[in-house]
């Protein structure tokens, strides 16, 4: 709300009355609230505006002209209302109705005020409960808004329609449909019927009345977004009325009708309570009787969409009857597949794909039994197959391929488990045909063909598809001339229907054969061929995960031989490791997903894709895999230890998957082996600490495996792991990696509540080991402390003060993650103290028995904790003081609501002392604290300190040495948002200091003017502005984010490049190939191109200008054409380089201060360079050294020579051609008087 109001306030001095009046009204309202001492909340604004509106109406000041008070009050009321709570709006309903409802008739003629009224009632309707919606005044207001949905003014009509849509989309709970939905549907039907009876214009140039058409178009635009919110019982009547409108001949009206009908059918397919199924045959009959022209792309697209939606809705309720209509509807839509418009073809393809979803089981069964291609499905498939080769449909190849993809998905029907599915029987020839097109010469739609073949791979499976389309990768197959189909290999990775045994029997021998060919090629030095075989082997094994997603023959396929092969490949073949690891994870996830689905649990979408396993098969597979856990964990542990840190993530995921199904005994055995490994290698880590690479460090590897095993460990094993990790040999280890992982394991143990240990004893142990702490382990240590403190009993809070110095200093860590963890620790301690308890002062660390005997216990709360934290302000080092200020700032931000005003006052007074410190680090932290309190604390608390705060900040603004000027300016910008200019300026004091505030004020006003100017430009041309992204943490955003709005606004406007694309649509063209005669009756798809004619210069084009040798065909280049510079020329260039660097256009000079100044590219400088460019005579080797040929005389340049283009001819004169450039007439007149010769620039 504040952001919206801030846009109004600057217009108090506007020259436009409709902007100035709301701004003055807002300022007056805020002044009233300030006088009354009322907090400027949304409720306060709402009540004040209502009071002002009531006074205006009582005075009968009902003027609605620009600058009148009534429109301004309605505008601000509509602006504030969305931010007012619903109970407040409901309690003031009668007052709002009595004041605003009678204004509807008067507002009809004044669109701006009317839009404000509509925005107000949109908010009111949403806030009302079920009983209040039955009030007469509310129902009348809703009827008034409905009538405005067909208003002639676009903005009013749009605002009313948005209000109705918003109301219907948000029914009062617990209702699912709004009570006003019936009223809106009845009104829409009545208006449509009235519009149908009005006269309609017949075209753009017609003078006939078009009132009926306009009204119908408006009501259809109103219906389109709300059709899903209307009651299902009203849809049949609306459908009947819509069917009559396309006959009236208005193209746009017909398109709108078809769009809404498509939406109605889509909604009825999901909700079958609409009873539209009885109307659909009549709907199909009416729509089929009036097909549009193919050239009308918009109307055609809507027409075919209606047919597709109607047949799908019909199939949802009457599948048998819909099957009988499939052929007729298909034939009607198929006629648009050869349209020249791409949008029409795409819409037709979508509708035909929808029709294919209506292939019912009886229809599919009849097609399977048909041998004469007489059934509907057989005819449709044959029609598509022939269209792939027909020139008529050459431009529609991508759409045809998408239709085939829908065939594959919708014909995935099994009559029984022993019979192939329908897609295999009916579509195999069509798939083979597409594969032949894919490898044919000049076929341009390879991506679309690959997408269709990928669907075929998913539905049919490699076992079926590769029988019809062999890969032909072996040398023996290549020798017979068979075309290789390596493009099928990348399609194996998706989940499909083939069992894992097919991979074992088909691809494993194939990969071994290709690996042997790779080794042979490398041995013979054919590196390119070896690389090809290497890539093919990788693609084969990349397809293994597709076989592992829900395989039904897992017990037979995952035999010891195949398992041993996988283990060997994991160890030896690094390139195949990722694919095998993914397959091993999917073996678990795909089966576990099926089991979880049976219990309605959330599952991984990737693991559930393509899985058709039954629950019994999945449980049997999991039982079998559980018996393999121990051996596979051993393999995975070895692999985990042999890879680097960046590659361990994937191996860890696989270990987690296998551990999740392991028996408790298997997990215990694995844990004992890893624990023994850790104990054996820990002494070695002590001897050779801080190894840069974890590879080979078995101690850290074992700890990483502990982290993976931890969620599945038993209580006993967790206790053993805790005892291992809490020991001094781990937490004080010289190896940073061991120490860091030890703290990480402890944090996870405490966070997961895996151990039951006394928190006070744990903290004492950790405190004893603080001396040997490495910098790398600080973050994890902070996490452990935070987790332990959260478990601390209310009677043991006396241990917290001993941890405060470590946590406070941690907020100054160089590592960002370490600082974040330290802040979280400070907040955890504050939360524990604020939750209550007792701080036993006699047990504080360092307290003697005699001193603590007479001390009373303190009640634990956040203020007591702040008092403890404030002790750091008396620290001996500036670093400690600065860290304490930052920590207190964080606590004040987090617990501002729980800290009393008195404590906040004390903190603020204390911090003001440090603002005058001479230490930069302390002042920097205090400035952050000041920025925070200005944003966070109440105004009343800060106002008394302004006289002290403002001069201190202004003093820092002149501190150029420490670069605080910008920071102080940002603080003042935030201060001026909460305090008035007069309040801050009067506290400035000195004249020099006040200049800083004046400068900030001027910059702010200039920024507002620029922002307003940009806003006006954006109204004409809307430009999407990137949203400002926060730091992700509220404290960070307040302290560091949003540095200065003024600074951003001072930047120069960046020109926005136009994103409009050319609207020219290139059609398909025939490709000409002189070497290949074209057969337009067969294989036309490979002769079509959509590529624009390329007029650019092609590589090797210049070679045609050279002579060629008749015998060898090589180019013959004459020696005379060799213009390479000689050695003398090179020396000449070197000698002149320095002079040219100073005098030429590309040169530069340096001033007295060392700055570089580039030479200007002037005509004079270019002319001087041309004058210096004189052809020197070559030295004849036969002449004596003293005799040199005379230089050639350079012709005088003609007038305008410097402006002559390189390829220009010029005017024909007696002396030849002159360039198209002349001097002025006055200069030309002087040249004929016998004066001096004129130079090339017209100067004498």
Automatic annotation (TrEMBL):
Residues 1044-1063, 1086-1127, 1145-1216 are annotated as: Disordered. Keywords: Coiled coil, Nucleus. Residues 339-642 form the RRP12 HEAT domain. Residues 990-1022 form a coiled coil. Residues 1152-1166 have a biased composition (Basic residues). One of its GO terms (cellular component) is nucleus. Pfam families: HEAT_RRP12_N, RRP12_HEAT. This is Armadillo-type protein. It comes from Crepidotus variabilis.
